[in-house]
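ok trying this again, last paste got cut off
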Amino acid sequence: MTSSKFTSKPLFTRQQILALLLPLIAEQALSVTIGLADTLMVSSVGEAAVSGVSLVDSFNTLMIQLMSALATGGAVVTSQYIGHRESKNAKATAAQIMFVLASFSVVVAAVVVVGRHGILRGIFGSIDADVMNYAETYFLLSALSYPFIGLYNAGAALFRAQGNSKISMMSSLVMNVVNIGGNAILIFGFGMGVLGAALASLVSRAIACVTVLFLLQKPSCPLRIEGLSSLRPNGSLIKRILRVGIPAGIENGMFQIGKLSVASLTSTLGTAAIAANAVANTTSTFLNIPASAVGMAVLTVVGQCLGAGEKEQAVYYARRLLFMAYCGAWFMNISAFLFANKFAISLFRLSPEAQTMALQVMVWFNLFSVFFWPSSFTLPNILRSAGDAPFTMTVSIISMWVFRVGFCYLMILGFHGRLLSIWMGMFLDWVFRSLCFAIRFVRGKWLEQTVI
């Protein structure tokens, strides 16, 4: 991936782009696949156990997204320092993102450990006693794993900022294999139920965290943290990290809240609609893997280009990576449209009514995805890599509450719509986001932002 029109040497070759991108695709596929297997294994414990774990996981997802957003802020700043060849500041930023993630995750973990019962009651209201018992057990051990998740996310983001995505892929492989193996042993072998599932998750996250931190501290690593003194808070660098991380965290948090609001609306449509929605969500996640991986890669590529002052190259690589995201979306969704939708839905034991609804939703998902998913989710990462996170946050929040939430409630409560109406609200959200992000990209306003 080179161009003779550049006035300076291209920062990335085609081989370097592929070496960054392919492990990210593998990592995303691994996470989705083993995550599904993990859910199926926990479901064998019983309905109350599944309900308790599901309630806690909705909160866990929110925390993981917030920590990922903070790690993204650190990755953007680090990438730009690497591109600017300021190795000292890159190392200093690496230490600060470790400090930020460690502090945030420890504080949240302490709050959950002490107040988990009140948090569950406050968010979910009245819960059956057996469900609450399972939820509190799972919540306690989940909270203990938050520091490991935070530091793992920080370390993985720093490796990706260097252009090395193999480390995060292998760490994810280890984490997921240990998790699913631990589930098999503790749930089926020792009959520990939800406690076993929570312990397996805790141990797997701890192992992944230690692995990433060990590799980050190798003498050959450019972002190696030299000592504990490097972790002393640096207000200037923390502000740079939070300028990207806080807007991204607010965006991710509000997005999760919006999803929970829509999920409660879906529950009013009946059992068949709930089942169809769950299957469609699971199936559609697989289709997003290539474009989602490209979205992670652009943070490194475009960030380093802008850090080097190569705006022309930043635009060049951004366009080509967005094109690759579209190629992945077209391949996955056309394949699903032609034959994979029916096969995937047939793997789940759905009633004929639920199968019909799930297939209808997936067909519309395929049609909208090929045009709007990459521009709605990959393109904003290009803007974030330049420090344009406040703009993406504003657009995403407005669009979500107007279309993904407001339109859905209007259609279901006002016009008695069905499951497809909820997904249409999501598609309208994509269209609006895509339009706003495309205009921002074409006009070049994102290139005027300052990160370092």
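PB: full thing came through this time. Residues 138 and 192 are 12 Å apart (CA to CA).
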